[in-house]
């Protein structure tokens, strides 16, 4: 606060948690050596799942089904038409699902409370 001259900084825990989750996801994807396009798609998936909780009030089961649908659709992009059968390799897709399970779905009730609990 002192260094950046933020003397009257108000912290929103909701925004802080979301920034932390997006940052952690971005760093994880960078460590996976995703290409720029793969990184972009991964961040879209991350945002998609959080929007499902926040805006659509989806249950854990419904959100898992939506993730499965979204993951299968990523292979049906222009890259498939050019001969590349999938956007992510099978190992990468498994790692992405594991990441979401361990970082978000395991704590699904906490994220539901984050978006829908009393302030």
TrEMBL record:
A Pfam family matched in the record: CLAMP
InterPro entries: CLAMP
Highest taxon above the source species: Eukaryota
Protein name: CBCO1 protein
The organism of origin for this protein: Furnarius figulus
């Amino acid at each position: 606060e002192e260094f950046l001259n933020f003397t009257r900084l108000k912290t929103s825990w909701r925004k802080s948690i979301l920034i932390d989750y997006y940052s952690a996801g971005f760093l994880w994807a960078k460590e996976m050596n995703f290409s720029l396009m793969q990184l972009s798609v991964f961040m879209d998936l991350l945002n998609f799942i959080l929007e499902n909780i926040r805006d659509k009030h989806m249950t854990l089961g419904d959100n898992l089904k939506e993730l499965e649908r979204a993951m299968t659709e990523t292979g049906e992009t222009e890259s498939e038409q050019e001969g590349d059968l999938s956007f992510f390799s099978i190992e990468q897709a498994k790692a992405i699902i594991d990441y979401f399970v361990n970082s978000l779905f395991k704590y699904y009730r906490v994220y539901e409370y984050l978006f829908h609990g009393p302030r």
